[in-house]
Amino acid sequence: MKIMVGCDHRGIEARMNLARTIRAWGHEVIEMGPTPDNPASVDYPDVAAPVARAVSEGTIDRGILICGTGIGMSVVANKFSGVRAAPILDVFTAELSRRHNDLNVLCLSADLLNADAMADVTGAWLQTEFSGEPRHARRLGRVAEIENEQIDLLKNN
């Protein structure tokens, strides 16, 4: 799987550790965001947007975004067509976010999750498939309809 992992200045170490772990699991990882050599403050939208755009356009399979809480990153990521992003703090929600919601952008908290917890959440999220159950597929279809209605509104204004 091709995964882009991005962070703002709050998540540099977390991103680097997580990217190393994901690579060890056999996935291709593209990292985005500040580095230890250049840890200057970065506005989370400047990282979230390119990652979400890549998911939306299908150039990567999934995205992972890390900031202080994961909330800001999820707000930005959800502005992109076809992106389903949420801040996730535990394995149970990670599994349900994939099984029920087909979440394709995982947002993580550098402040609330240590490296082991972040790896556990990410591992569960990467290993869990969308169930495809009719009720979940129907709901995601409705989400896509709402998204398309909003796109049409923007085009007509």
List the helices and strands and how they pair.
Blueprint: E1 2-7, H1 12-24, E2 28-32, H2 44-57, E3 62-67, H3 71-77, E4 85-87, H4 91-99, E5 105-109, H5 115-127, H6 134-156
Parallel strand pairs: 1-2, 1-3, 3-5, 4-5
Helix pairs in contact: 1-5, 2-3, 4-5
Task: Describe the structure in your own words.
- This protein has a five-stranded parallel β-sheet, sandwiched between helices.
- It has 157 residues and is α/β, with parallel strands linked by helices.
- It has helices spanning 12-24, 44-57, 71-77, 91-99, 115-127, 134-156, and strands at residues 2-7, 28-32, 62-67, 85-87, 105-109.
- β4 (85-87), α4 and β5 (105-109) form a beta-alpha-beta unit.
- It has one domain (2-130): Ribose 5-phosphate Isomerase B, Chain: A, CATH 3.40.1400.10.
- Helix content is 50%, strand content 16%.
- The chain contains six helices and five strands; from the N terminus they run βαβαβαβαβαα.
Q: From the alpha-carbon coordinates, what is the Rg to the nearest angstrom?
A: 15 Å
As a percent range, the share of strand residues is: 15-25%
Q: What is the number of E strands? A: 5
- What general outline do the C-alpha atoms trace? globular
CATH domain class name: Alpha Beta
Distance N to C terminus: 39 Å
What level of helicity do the residues show?
40-55%
Q: State the order of secondary-structure elements, H for helix, E for strand.
A: EHEHEHEHEHH
Largest sheet composition: 5 strands, parallel
As for the CATH topology, it is Ribose 5-phosphate Isomerase B, Chain: A
